[in-house]
Predict the 3D structure of the following.
Amino acid sequence: MAGIGRRQLLGSTAAAIGAAVLPRGASAQAGPPVARVAPVTETLWGTQVTDPYRWMESKDAEWQAYAKAEAAYAANILSKIPGRQALFEAIERDTGAVTLVSAVQTGGDLIFTEVRQAGGELAKLYTRTGIGGRDRLLIDPDRFAPKGSHAALDWWAPSPDGSHVAFGISPGGSEQSTLHIMVTATGALLPETMDRTPDANPSWLPDGTGFFYNRLQAGVPRESPEYEEKSVCWFHRLNHDPKVDQKFFGEGLDPAVAVADIDFPGVGATPGSDILIGSLVSGVQIELSLYAGSLTEMFDVGSYVTTATPPPGFGAPPPRPEPWTKICGPEAKVTGAAVLGDSIYLQTHLNASRYRVVKTTAAKPAFADAVEVVPESTAVIRGIVAARDGIYIQDLDAGLGGLRRLRPDGTITQIKLPFSGSIDALYADTLHDGAWFSLEGWVRPTVICYVGADGAVHQTGIAPQPPIDVTPYTSEEIFAVARDGVKVPLSVVWRKSTKLDGSAPLVLWAYGAYGITEDPSFIARWLPLLDQGGIFALAHVRGGGELGEDWHLAGKKLTKPNTWRDLIACAETLIARHFTSSPKLAIMGGSAGGITVGMFMTERPDLAAVVIDEVGVSNPLRSEFSPNGPPNIPEFGTVKDREGFKALYAMDTYQHIRNGVKYPSVLALTGLNDPRVEPWEPTKLTARLQGATASVNPVLLRVDTDAGHGYGSTRAQRDKETADIFAFVLWRTGDPRYQPR
């Protein structure tokens, strides 16, 4: 799922879902804890809004006690579902068989890989010399784990020559990173560390003597809505005390650079180029403000043009964080940039919903003077990266990944892939030819690929194929027709032996936000559900980016209702085509997908038997006042203006829950260290639903005290969570093997 700076879902009546699906004797549990009701009423833009559980937002001792009581209640019920332990063991077996490689980068002659080894719990950083080299463990987050918890590797970046790695470590899935620096050859840590670096996004100088990094402002409490505001991009020189680090790009440093409070400033340097790119990411808004600077001028190194080998004495003068020349603002609709020599390549959706690429130069770095080098086509351009031999372009066409190379002379070549699937983790650097990427499908495990200067793709052994037989499974891409006539793509995955007669339990996932695409991926964790006769489906609803930026805009702010209504149409289509039936249907979404499934539930409580709301946004009228709220204003809106309030109110599940409605079975999930969606949102949702529903269906809140938004969770944590979800779904959709006695 997606998040900030990386950065995260017919026919039967409510009575049929409520009473008939509940197995005899299954409601004989003690009731859930009852939360104190203390209504707060306010009038916003002429609308009276009442919030019965506003007090939970303080996360005080009373809230802590309530959350723990809900956690105990849920754990007690989930533990009594027969088959849950067997599900966990099957999930653990399949996930333990997979070596998960999430990123590949290069530095000098070294290849760096982030890998969760088969049987491992967390991703670790390894290095090897050459594709066929032997892996050496470099960074193990267990080394930094606090007592009684765990630590995660959040991000990392090797220097151009591979001699050092800057990396972030956080405890307990909190994503509150501390920046460390390691010497690659010895594994020794340099003495300097920097806290407040959850989105540091480090970029090294070409000579490796220092790097730029983003850091949050000091002295702001973690719970404050201002916590993520007014960050600054700093410059750090190796083997220097961070106290002497210099602010390099951000508010108040150059009058020519306008910086908003929610902007995340960053600076990127490129080996072989004098161009520095200053970027402003305005919260979760995908359109960037970009500026160009000169490395030689800002570091007072005369006529020196950067290479991997610095001249004598380079790095001694202090940097001068100005002047910057503006390339573009958000109105240019630029969402990505790559530098190669004296050229700046920009990915834009201006007058091109599926994106195009334009080029400008260091001599006149202005979007207005840029020339088009890759026109818009039927494929959606997902990203661009620069290599020594050209610009590599990641495409998405009819749900499948594609790759092209743009030579400096303007020639565009299509790269032939080993098999049809989705591309992820595209990486290249200007000191090497070629590019790295992962390739996978719904029923095709991931392979790590390298394409060389000759255009040939090599399937490396960096991600070995797991000993899992995938031949029993199949997938199909179909379409649903939304209420306004728009065709919505829908992916369906199942075991070939499953009967498609409407009797199969089906989990329908949806997200639909930020322009993020939900691409085909091999998810071993879901195979045990398919083995139990279940089906997995993914609705590519509006708000995502599967069909370009217009698809995103059609599910954003005031058009957000399209997102959950697309999901309703997908559910109806799956039922009409006999993949499932209403009493067998579960809908699931996480993070911003909580809006999607929550509003589905309030508009059509009769349509699905189960709702899984995983670390989901459910009270967006109040999300704005949480630490991660202001950065999300560009996507969802603000209560401070009339249209923003109207959009937020329309998508607020909490405010749309009504007393006396027969709601389906609900399992909400949260982690107490969640930095993206405050855990008080799921607790408020749970309390409101438990008090409002007229059905006998359970409403549970699963709480993980040593986790956050899911990033940095251990494999065991994810496996146990998935087992609880699947067991709950199979119980509530009537599978006789999962009915409590």
Q: What stands out?
A: The chain has 14 helices and 37 strands.
